[in-house]
Amino acid sequence: SKCALGGSFSKGELVPFGNIEINPSAGVLNYGQGLFEGLKAYRTEDGNILLFRPEENATRMTMGAERMCMPAPSIDQFVQAVKATVLANERWIPPPGKGSLYIRPLLIGSGSVLGLAPAPEYTFLIYVSPVGNYFKEGLSPINLIIETEMHRATPGGTGGVKTIGNYAAVLKAQGAAKARGYSDVLYLDSVHKNYLEEVSSCNIFVVKGNTISTPDIKGTILPGITRKSIIDVARDQGFQVEERAVTVDELLDADEVFCTGTAVVVSPVGSITYLGKRVTYGSDGVGLVSQKLYSTLTSLQMGLTDDKMGWTVKLK
Ligand code: PMP
Fold first, then answer.
1. pLDDT value at position 5?
2. Which fold has domain 27-131?
3. How far is the CA of 134 from the centre of ligand 1 (A)?
4. What is the band of 1 on the pLDDT scale with cuts at 50, 70, 90?
5. Any idea which residues carry the catalytic annotation?
6. Which tens digits make up the pLDDT trace of 101-120?
7. pLDDT tens track for 185-242
8. How far is the CA of 114 from the centre of ligand 1 (A)?
9. CA of residue 222 to ligand 1 center, whole Å
10. Contact (Cβ atoms closer than 8 angstroms) between residue 145 and residue 185
C-alpha cells in the first residue's frame, strides 16, 4: 500500500467485556483511523452455530485498511478471531428464531501520533451482543426520507469503506429524520443529487416488474455483503438484477423497494418522502419480492434450508 505499512497482530486473548485503555494521542481519537465490521451468528435447531460469509467481512476490512493507511489482520486471523469470540460467548446467542449474536470487529489506530500521520500501532478487537430486529418494524415496512442537503460520501472520499467517520457524518441527518418519525435516511449522490446511494446502514434495491436494480459500487456506497448475496439469490430465483445508476424518479415509480444489510437483513420500504411528497408502495403490506428474498436469505442464515451456495460456516 502507499502508506508502506507493515504490521503484525499478536496472537490475541479473550478478556471479559469492559473498558480498554487508550492514549489520548491515539490515531483513532485524533484522526479517525478506525474501521469496523458487523456480522451475525445464529443458533440452529440442531445445536450448531452458523456464521454467514465471515471471509467477506475480513476481505472488506482489508480493503478498508488500505484506504485508511492501516495494517489489517489476515483473512484467516480475522475469521479465527471471530470464531473464538463467538464460541467463548456461546451463552449469549439467542435460541433459534429469537434473534442472533451481533459481532463487531474493530480495527483502530491505537498508537500515539501528534502530527497528522498514520498511527504507529494498531489494535484489532471484537465484541459481541445479542440482538433482535434492527428496525422495530421487523419485516413490516419502514419509512424513509430522502436527504437532499447532507451527504454521507463524496467521490474520492471514504464512503466505500467501513470507516468510523462515515457514521459520525450521518448522525445529524438520521437524528432529524427519526425525530420526525421516519425509520431512516436515504442518501443521494453528492454531484447530481439525482442518483440513489444508500441508507445510513444498509443498501437499497428498487423492484419494477421482474427487474431488480441497485446502485453500482463506485466508491461512495458500502459494498454490502447482504447486497452481494441478495443479488445472487435474486438471479437464482429468475429475477433480472441490474447494478447501475438508479434515479430518484425510478425509485418513486417502483413497484417495491427494500433495503439490505447484516442488521436489517431485508427490510421492505413502505414509503419514501422526497421534497415533502410521500410515495407509498404496495397497499401497506410487505411486497412479495421483498418477502421472498427475506425468507430465502434468513432460512439460509439460520440453517433452515440447504446451503447450496456454501455461504454458511459451522462453528461446531
Ligand atoms: N451500507 C452501510 C453504510 C452500512 O453500514 C452497512 C452495514 N454494514 C451496509 C450498507 C450493509 O452492508 P452488509 O450487508 O455487509 O451488512
1. 62
2. D-amino Acid Aminotransferase; Chain A, domain 1 (3.30.470)
3. 12
4. very low
5. 162
6. 999 999 999 999 999 999 99
7. 999 999 999 999 999 999 999 999 999 999 999 999 999 999 999 999 999 999 999 9
8. 32
9. 6
10. yes
Output the ligand 1 site: residues, CB below 6 A: 38, 198, 201-203, 222, 224-227, 260-262
- Look at ligand 1, atom 5, and give the residue with the nearest C-alpha: 201
Q: Provide CATH code, domain 142-301.
A: 3.20.10.10
Which atom of ligand 1 is least distant from the CA of 57?
15
**Angle subtended at Cα 268 by Cα 266 and Cα 274, rounded to the nearest 5 degrees:** 125
Long-range contacts of 173-182 (CB under 8 A, 24+ apart): 173/147, 173/149, 173/200, 174/200, 177/145, 177/147, 180/145, 181/143, 182/143, 182/144, 182/145, 182/273
For the stretch 279-306, pLDDT in tens is 999 876 689 999 999 999 999 999 999 9
Question: Are the CB atoms for 18 and 11 separated by under 8 Å?
Answer: no
Q: Where do the domains of the chain lie? A: 27-131, 142-301
Q: Which residue out of 203, 220, 260, 264 has the highest number of ligand 1 atoms within 8 Å of its CB and is therefore the one to mutate?
A: 203
Cα 39 to averaged position of ligand 1 atoms, centre (Å): 10
pTM value?
0.96
Fill in the DSSP letter of residue 26: B
Whether pLDDT at 131 is above 80: yes
For ligand 1, atom 12, name the residue with the nearest CA. 224
Burial of 263 (0-12, 13-18, 19+ CB in 10 A): middle
The predicted model gives 70-81 an average pLDDT of 95
234, 169 Cβ separation under 8 angstroms? no
**Residue whose CA lies nearest to ligand 1 atom number 10:** 202
